[in-house]
UniProtKB/TrEMBL annotation:
The keyword Signal applies. The lineage of its organism: Bacteria, Pseudomonadati, Bacteroidota, Cytophagia, Cytophagales. It comes from Hymenobacter bucti. The keyword DNA-binding does not apply. This is Beta-xylosidase. Gene3D superfamilies: Glycosidases (3.20.20.80), Glycosyl hydrolase domain, family 39 (2.60.40.1500). Keywords: Glycosidase, Hydrolase, Signal.
């Protein structure tokens, strides 16, 4: 289908354009009262690599990996990206029978016989990692937590936390330092050695190994110095088994949390100039740096108000800390958890401020937040490699219970479709001009409370035959508002015509939650209803694909984008 172009004089700011087409649902096709938001994308002006920062996911409960819905979701995550998807998971060395529970999991990898001699059992670990490797995914192999036989304070060991309980109840015997650092080091060595034997050196070299999680809070019941000691022993063991392995840390919480900035700085200082506890020499090898970043939603007058500012501040502060060490400035950085708030297993029933999670607020927040990661990395001139969305699935729980997950009972939620959109982007980021866009500084000043955050991120594929523009209409307040009218001016297209595919996440598209509500919110949906929900959870086109013509590589598109909506314009030629 070809579109006739309107005279250039129709749009005063886009006088150089040859024409326009409108992209909106029939109910949204009428122009809004507000003036159009002008966005210009220049595909001929590269801005840097479109690093797949979004191809990282994580969760507390490793045993969900091998369960039915976990297996299905892993397959979908692996399929959404041409780049390898990395998976980070807790409790890989925790003692137990492999039963999954909230914020708990176990593999029983390490026990001891009656004489205190190590007994290694990699069966459950292998089942989990096999699930990743068979799908072309890569583990961020977490060295943690402390096996019961090695814990310096093993009793009580297993916790039985559930949503609504005191969060501190989870910090039991697994969170303590080892009673024998040499035995810990040997455990690490045996795991890496076993992985090389099972998967091959070439494969394991592509993994990321890391030590522990959030050692500045209850996840680590030792001192910062004891964590540094644990890292030194772990580093020696990892690289003794595989010199080319990549090991990082310290996975502190966001720098705004309890002593996180101090612990992060102290750890980096130790790696650069401290005395190595394992070797007695100066410094410790560090292959990448990790820390977390979280937002802070709350209820305001009966609705959810998000707070992206705290997440952006965590990222900005953490990147600046890393950049302050000249020896480490170019090391890869991974945001080990990058989320709107802190507890994935806290559902809506116990935490009503998490009510954003089922619908489009989560998806629009994610689009706006991940797009800013590129800006922050550029501003700090650091090597940001990835950002882990701490969200997976909670097996056998009520439908749409409001956990921070990507799917419920095997049905994908709207937020997963943002990652599918991002998976269609790659190659080089290109220039976007948007006079009304919010800067990072605006976000830090809570401008998203006052006005909508309407923005764009664009890229050109490495093969030069496709491009993509991600658009979002986000606001911190979960309140209804008119759709925004966007005028998207495209420049630098190297073809006289291009096939346009317009993908959309909003109330009617790519949204299993509103479909579920429309079915009466069933907790025992029929087979037909399940099929309907599964289809609604997939990424949907707003309109049929259509050919657009360009004049000297230019065109203009008109997009009606609802509040909390996300669009992806994919062009190919």
């Amino acid at each position: 289908m070809r579109f006739r172009f309107f005279p250039a004089s129709i749009r005063r700011w886009a006088g150089f354009l040859s024409g326009a087409i409108a992209l909106g649902t029939p109910s949204q096709a009428q122009p809004t009262a507000a003036a159009p938001v002008p966005i210009t994308v220049d595909f001929a002006k590269p801005q840097g690599a479109m690093q797949p920062l979004w191809a990282y996911f994580g969760y507390d409960e490793p045993n969900y990996t091998t369960m039915k819905d976990g297996q299905q979701l892993l397959t979908e995550l692996a399929a959404l990206s041409p780049a390898p998807v990395y998976v980070r998971v807790h409790n890989m060395l925790t003692t137990g029978d492999g039963t999954a529970a909230f914020k708990w999991g176990s593999t029983n990898a390490y026990t001891e016989d009656k004489k205190g001699r190590p007994v290694y059992d990699w069966k459950i670990v292998d089942q989990i990692f096999d699930s990743y490797i068979q799908r072309g995914m890569k583990p961020i192999a977490q060295l943690g937590f402390m096996p019961e036989a090695l814990s310096s304070h093993p009793t009580p060991y297993r916790h039985h936390w559930k949503p609504g309980d005191n969060y501190n109840d989870i910090y039991t015997g697994w969170a303590y330092p080892p009673k024998d650092y040499a035995k810990w080091g040997e455990l690490v060595y045996q795991w890496v050695k076993h992985s090389v034997a099972r998967y091959g050196e070439a494969e394991v070299k592509t993994w990321r190994w890391e030590l522990w999680n959030e050692p500045n809070i209850g996840y680590w019941k030792g001192t910062p110095e004891e964590y540094q000691k644990l890292f030194d022993y772990s580093e020696a063991a990892v690289h003794r088994a595989l010199p080319a392995a990549s090991l990082g840390g310290p996975e502190t919480t966001g720098p705004g949390w309890d002593k996180a900035a101090e612990v992060l700085k102290g750890f980096l200082e130790h790696c650069v100039r401290g005395t190595n506890y394992a070797t007695g020499k100066k410094g410790t090898r560090l292959d990448f740096v990790t820390f977390h970043a979280k937002g802070a939603p709350k209820l305001v007058d009966g609705h959810v108000r998000m707070n992206m500012a705290t997440q952006m501040k965590d990222i900005q502060t953490g990147l600046a800390i890393v950049a302050s060490f000249p020896e480490l400035r170019q090391l890869p950085i991974i945001l080990g958890e990058n989320d709107p708030e802190g507890c994935a297993a806290c559902g809506v029933q116990t935490n009503p401020d998490n009510a954003y999670r089922n619908g489009t607020m989560f998806s629009s927040y994610t689009a706006a937040a991940y797009a800013r990661l590129y800006t922050l990395a550029d501003q700090n001139q650091v090597n940001l490699l990835g950002a882990v969305s701490w969200s997976f699935e909670f097996e056998n729980q009520p439908w749409f219970a409001g956990f921070r997950d990507l799917a419920t009972n095997g049905v994908d939620k709207p937020v997963l479709n943002v990652f599918r959109m991002l998976g269609m982007m790659g190659g080089q980021r290109v220039a976007v001009t948007n006079p009304q866009a919010l800067s990072v500084a605006d976000i830090l000043n809570q401008a998203q409370n006052q006005r909508p955050d309407i923005g764009a991120l664009a890229s050109v594929a490495a093969d030069g035959h496709s491009a993509a523009v991600l658009l979002w209409n986000y606001h911190n307040d979960d309140l209804p508002a008119p759709a925004a009218d966007l005028e998207v001016a495209l420049q630098g297209l190297p073809a006289s015509q291009a096939l346009l595919q317009h993908y959309r996440i909003d109330q009617e598209h790519s949204n299993s939650y509103t479909t579920w509500q429309g079915l009466g919110s069933p907790q025992s949906p029929s087979a037909a209803q399940r099929a309907t929900l599964a289809q609604a959870g997939q990424l949907a086109l707003l309109t049929s694909p259509a050919w657009i013509s360009t004049q000297q590589g230019r065109a203009v598109l008109h997009v009606s984008l609802p509040r909390q909506g996300v669009s992806l314009l994919r062009l190919s030629w």
